[in-house]
Write a structure and sequence with these properties.
By secondary structure, chain A is α/β, with parallel strands linked by helices. Chain A is built from 15 helices and 19 strands. The chains are: A alpha/beta, B alpha/beta. Chains A and B meet through strand 1, helix 2, helix 3 and helix 5 of A and helix 4, helix 6 and helix 7 of B.
């Protein structure tokens, strides 16, 4: 009998039912909630007379998409979530002052562990696979059942293993790697599969970079992107798990249970050499349409957005600040930076990064999803072009009639200075 | 349970995403009914006439990877409140497909060649679909053309459709 992939091991340790050939009902370790997709689940549960939660300690909730509320409707969404969290004594509820982008905040709080099963009503939930968890975006009904029963149904996942090899050139980042993979697989290339990101390049990545990588797995259709938990994972989680293990090596040994077996069966195994990779940028309205930055160098831009669950982490801000230090952004562009959590905001302040952004001419916003999905803090007008460190360039995504080019924080910062899409000086290819 | 039958809206493009089905700016609504006028408002599709094309339609036939992108269940809800409960496509994005069944709606996948044939034979004329869930077959008809198309559906998926979705199923089974 063949060995198991990471996802197969997690499925086999969490399955409670198998109601159809390919339907597996799993027990959940955590249900994450935000104010856009959860209120409809809450009101529906109330309407059905089922206003209950399976375990208040395993439910984590945040107001992040539009915060502070921009109008009465978003205020109502926040109110429904806030009152529900109080009513059910959900202690890990993050409101104004403590709130940040869910896929950055929840890992930062230590809520994601190797081998966990996690759902959220948000497609970028795949981010949390960076810790060796099975984390999947779901719709509101799945979320509703997750809240009520602590379970979710999935198809047994086929896995694509992507062995990322070579040496990542200076100025080329996790964002460029994932864009190159999406370009290779296509937007539908990993539908209904899990991607295991393996190999020396991933092993050398920080947790921030691994989260960037896994964040965009869904852009190739994947249910989840998974990295193998290693010393880097243990180091990130150590403040939260130090009472659970005698030392770090014991934690690592325990986490190895969520490494794939050597003879695991994969739907596909790909080698992806990044030695010759250049900084990339998307063109058009599909994230698999990627080009080298140098091919897009005449593209004028109106707005730069640095932030989001893809690239709003401290490492991203540090890289952008390295490019922006002592520089001014073009008179023709509006620069917006949104640190993803209060902790990151504070770190960026302490490290002088916020000052660098402000001196360069950027507007600094509070942590929020805001502009990435065209809801607030940087919506585009018809015909405008945005260079963004976000994850989706769909038509209308950041505002009707707007165009979004996805890129790394280094490329975005360089583009802000140039007023057009440009390579950063960190890249010397 | 709905009857999954009626007039067909043909959407001749792959990769229609959930931002196109319902734009993010409407995610601040807290009732499904409020989504009704905004279905496909931002869709990139030549010749598409918005609400004029949507009105009176109960079935969508489209290409591959329908419903990709954001997990928003507002997308199937926007179809539901417009009276569209059946989508026939070459393939679906995972979350969107699961959302449809979770709401008691029906997502039918057919081979690319069959989808091609349906577009070539029917897309230019007023077409209706009549579904027989029991036999897992729908009849597609336009003018004097008519044929039966078989599809597959697991017993579990059928149970979801018949009980009206996953909440009632899960709460009674687990």
């Amino acid at each position: 009998m063949a060995g198991k992939t990471v996802a197969e091991k997690i499925f086999d340790s969490h399955r409670i039912d198998n109601p159809a050939d390919d339907v597996h009902v799993l027990k959940l370790d955590a249900v994450f909630c935000h104010e856009i997709t959860t209120p409809m689940a809450i009101t529906d549960l109330i309407a059905r007379g089922k206003d209950r939660v399976f375990d208040p300690q395993k439910i984590k909730a945040v107001i992040d998409h539009v915060t502070p509320a921009k109008d009465s409707k978003t205020a109502t969404q926040g109110k429904i979530l806030r009152e529900w969290a109080r009513r059910h004594r959900i202690r890990d509820f993050f409101d104004i002052g403590r709130n940040g982008i869910c896929h950055v905040l929840f890992p930062e709080q230590g809520f994601v562990r190797p081998g966990h099963t996690i759902i959220m009503g948000d497609s970028h939930t795949c981010t949390h696979g960076a810790f060796g968890a099975f984390a999947a975006g779901v719709g509101t009904t799945d979320l509703e059942v997750g809240i009520l029963k602590g379970i979710c149904a999935f198809h047994y996942p086929k896995t694509i293993k992507i062995d990322i090899t070579g040496n990542l050139p200076a100025g080329v980042f996790a964002k460029d790697v994932i864009l190159s993979i999406i370009g290779r697989l296509g937007v539908n290339g990993a539908t209904n599969t899990v991607i295991e990101f393996s190999g020396p390049v991933v092993a050398g990545m920080s947790m921030d970079a691994r989260m960037t990588l896994c964040n965009m797995a869904v852009e190739a259709g994947a249910t989840c992107g998974i990295c193998y938990p290693d010393q880097t994972t243990v180091a990130y989680l150590w403040p939260f798990i130090q009472n659970e293990y005698p030392d770090r090596s014991a934690a690592l040994e325990a986490f190895k249970a969520f490494w794939p077996d050597a003879d695991a069966a994969y739907a596909k195994a790909i080698k992806h050499d990044v030695s010759g990779l250049e900084p990339l940028v998307t063109d058009g309205f599909k994230p698999d349409n990627v080009k080298a930055v140098k091919e897009m160098g005449t593209t004028a831009i109106d707005q730069i957005y640095i932030g989001s669950c893809t690239n709003g982490r401290i490492e991203d801000l540090r890289i952008a600040a390295q490019v922006l230090k002592g520089q001014k952004i073009s008179d023709n562009v509006r620069g917006i930076v949104s640190p993803a959590t209060p902790k990151i905001f504070r770190q960026a302040l302490d490290e002088g990064i916020i000052g660098i952004f402000m001196d360069a001419g950027f507007c600094v916003t509070n942590p929020t999803c805001g502009a990435c999905l065209g809801m607030s803090t940087g919506v585009l007008a018809e015909g405008e072009v945005c260079a963004a460190t976000t994850n989706r360039n769909f038509s209308g995504r950041m505002g009707k009639g707007g165009m979004v080019h996805l890129m790394s924080p280094a490329t975005a910062a360089a583009s802000a200075i140039a007023g057009r899409i440009a390579n950063s000086p960190i890249y010397n290819g | 349970m709905w009857d999954f039958s009626g007039k067909v809206l043909f959407l001749d493009r792959a990769d229609i995403n959930t931002d196109e089905i319902i734009a993010a700016k409407y995610l601040t609504e807290i009732t499904r009914a409020a989504l009704q006028p905004h279905l496909f408002e931002d869709i990139k599709l030549d010749g598409f006439q918005g609400q004029d094309d949507i009105a009176g339609k109960s079935v969508i036939i489209t290409r591959a990877n329908f419903g990709c992108g954001s997990s928003r269940e507002h997308a199937p809800w926007a179809l539901e409140v417009n009276g569209i409960h059946l989508v026939v496509a070459e393939s679906f994005a995972r979350i969107f497909r699961q959302n449809m069944f979770n709401c008691g709606m029906l997502a039918v996948e057919l081979p690319a060649a069959t989808i091609d044939h349906l577009f070539q034979s029917y897309a230019h004329q007023q077409t209706t679909v009549t579904t027989n869930l029991e036999n897992r077959v729908f009849t597609i008809a336009a003018g004097d053309q008519k044929e039966d198309i078989k599809f597959s559906l697991t017993d579990f998926a059928r149970a979801l459709v018949e009980t009206g979705g996953w909440v009632e199923y899960a709460d009674s089974h687990y």
